[in-house]
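#struct-queue
[09:14] JT: dropping the first one here, sequence first, then the structure tokens:
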Amino acid sequence: MSERHDDVTVTAWALAAGAGDQAALASFVRATQADVHRFLVHRSGPAEAEDLAQETYLRALRTLPTFAATSSARTWLLSVARRVAADAVRTAVRRPRIRDLGADTQQALERVAAPRSRAQEAVLLRALIDDLAPDRREAFVLTQILDLGYAEAAEVCGCPIGTIRSRVARAREDLVRALRADSGGGSGTGSGAAPGSASGPGAGRAVRSAPH
């Protein structure tokens, strides 16, 4: 996994790249591509993430010369990625489809009553995050997985900080309910789980440290 650089360094690379520095451009792309791809996987699904990431960088490179660093380059780039994903939804041919969760996720979901390893819990949690309401999933991924501050996430989403805080709190509640329902082996959905349902040994820990 590539080293995570601080925002000051990444922003300096973006400014230099906008001025024509090719080495800085290469550093900027390397430093941000993992976060962009991870965000788009959660935003649009793994099947679309690669193409959307490429479009994100194409758009970003066209506007880098006008980037004024009023926010960090990472925040600015994730805003571009969000617009790319939204445009893809608006222009896509709408047809029913099932999100590709992968074989490991399907196995975990089919054996909800069986004891799970930490790895299986991580796979299941990733599926539960993908099933969150889009606004809540986006806020949760930005702040809890990509480590953006609430103010930065609000800038990416174009909404007040309080809205981000509320969405993250609701996302956590949704995840805890779903994990409790899953650990209890009940047949109902997460929203129907009783507040006192038993939680699996790693459930609370998993919500606090969602898989990257």
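[09:21] JT: and here's the second one, same format:
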Amino acid sequence: MATQVIKIIKEAEDKANTIIKEANNKAKIIAKQSKDKAVEEYKNIVESANKQSEDIINSSIQKANNEIELFINKENKEVENILNINQEKLDKAVNIVIERIVSSYGNS
């Protein structure tokens, strides 16, 4: 009977050891899966943040380019207006200035 009790205890110990090994293996698998999932989630977050920052930078560059283009167009129109003063208007302006100078000094 003592042998039979020892045999039962030995079987119980073996079964307990098997259960412990299986539990340890499952724990390792779960830990690895959790780590893999955390790494993947981290990568997704970093990728999303990089995309958002890239979008913000591109948007800012586009906005700045648009403002620069508007400014250049405005300045080009002003330059064009200055350059488009025709000779007749220029001659007329010169004559008015000359007349004022002559009449100012001519009446003295």
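[09:30] RK: nice, looked through the second one.
[09:31] RK: DSSP finds two helices and no strands in the chain.
[09:31] JT: good to know. The two ends are 150 Å apart (CA to CA).
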